[in-house]
Design goal:
Keywords: Oxidoreductase. This is SDR family oxidoreductase. Pfam families: adh_short_C2. This protein has about 260 residues and is α/β, with parallel strands linked by helices. It has one domain: 3-Layer(aba) Sandwich (Rossmann fold). Helices cover about 45% and strands about 15% of the residues. The protein has nine helices and nine strands. It has a seven-stranded parallel sheet, sandwiched between helices. A hairpin with a 6-residue loop joins strand 5 and strand 6. Helix 1 packs across helix 9, helix 3 runs parallel beside helix 4 and helix 4 packs parallel to helix 6. It is globular and about 60 Å long. The termini are far apart. The relative contact order is 0.14.
Amino acid sequence: MKTDSNTAAVVTGGASGLGRASAEALAAAGMKVAIFDLNEAAGEEIAKAIGGVFCKVDVTSEDSVVAGFAAARAAHGQERVTVHCAQVSKGGKTLARDRETGGFKRYSTEDYEFSARGILVASYRVASLSALGMAGLEPLDDGERGVITLTASAAAQDAQIGQVGYGSCKAGVNGLVLPLARDLMDLGIRVNSIMPGIFATPPMLSVKDRAPAIFEGLAASVPFPKRLGKPEEFGSLVLELVRNSYFNGQNIRLDGAIRMPPR
């Protein structure tokens, strides 16, 4: 797909981290970018810097996402590119020792459901609502109408202790990709996911400030290159998935060959 001013894009979670890097990469390639996020101050600032538009959106709310797409389309026209990076989840072990009682406390069904809604359900919501809009577009070369990129995680394949909700729901994101791609193939809408490893996003950079030894250990655990991923490297892959129309139905690791240990 061509990346120019005739192409509109939506990036969820675009106010920081991997979403911000994606928004910046798409805008630098010439596209009109709408940022969906809850952080109004950062979202507005980044949207202004890239010549885009900010929409305050909660991806766990159907009404909020519908309204966000309506606002973005009013500003830029129907998007042909959607990158979904926003997510919310709660961590915890299935069973963990309760030091006060000497027994066990459970990662509750409610916490698991929260993670499922914030990761898996939100991914389907954003992808399917975007596809509904893309379906009405005129096809481009090869009959292509759009491309949707979801964000999974290396944890989708090797989740660590305490990631039962996060890891299984990210695996579910990967599981969405092929059936979505097949459902949408006759409409010329492609769907892929990226599984980032350990990236230098704001949460990870806060670890560097709080516990530099832990941060250095994380960097050293990456086979090569021995560092955390750069958000712009994620943005670069997002852009390639847009440009290369033969990418479809793929779950792609971007992780420096790391395989996470249990802890």
